[in-house]
Amino acid sequence: MPKLMIVVGSVRPKRVGGAVGEWARDAALADGRFDVDYVDLRELALPFMDEEAHPRLRRYTQQHTISWGERVDAADAFLFITPEYNYSYAPAVKNALDYLMFEWSRKPIGIASYGGVSAGTRGVVALRPVLQALGLVSTGANVEISYVSKQVEEGVFIPTERQSVVLAALLDELVVLDAALSPLR
Q1: Who contacts 182 (Cβ-Cβ below 8 Å, separation ≥6)?
Q2: Rounded to 5 degrees, what are φ and ψ at 32?
Q3: Which domain holds residue 83?
Q4: How many domains does the chain have?
Q5: Distance between CA 80 and CA 99 in Å, rounded?
Q6: How many C-alpha atoms does 118 have within 13 Å on its Cβ side?
Q7: What is the CATH number of the domain that holds 57?
Q8: In whole angstroms, what is the distance from residue 17 CA to residue 11 CA?
Q9: d(C-alpha 6, C-alpha 167), whole Å
Q10: Which tens digit of pLDDT belongs to each residue from 67-118?
């Protein structure tokens, strides 16, 4: 059973990303094909990159980096829940990615993005080169949520039928990509 790490990328005190992440987590658990590791970057609280050596050397000195590296290394696939900030992605996402290098390589990643009119897609476009540089393999299916706050009621994200269908397709693709990529890791 592949280990799917779901990463909530917003660290704001008041946010909707946690509700979207919980929906994705519950869907992945209900799917039954994944061992799910749920990571809220707000709770993980990685400081701004504070390692002296480049991540490609894997000479980590900080316990938070060592722990984060072990956790990412243990994952087989990823689903990032990310907002769009100023036509880009959340800085906490960039920081979490930049801490490591080889731990991400040859693993599939799907994205659930959210925002206003663009549904976070401009942030995803900005994120793609970073994912590619780290050796992550993106799914074709991505969940895109416009005006996300309109779908959160009492702290719970209420997906549309289309969003649920796309998430299911994304999970299907993560399984297929993991099977294809795991021999290469």
Answers
A1: 76
A2: 85, 0
A3: 3-184
A4: 1
A5: 16
A6: 14
A7: 3.40.50.360
A8: 9
A9: 13
A10: 999 999 999 999 999 999 999 999 999 999 999 999 999 999 999 999 999 9
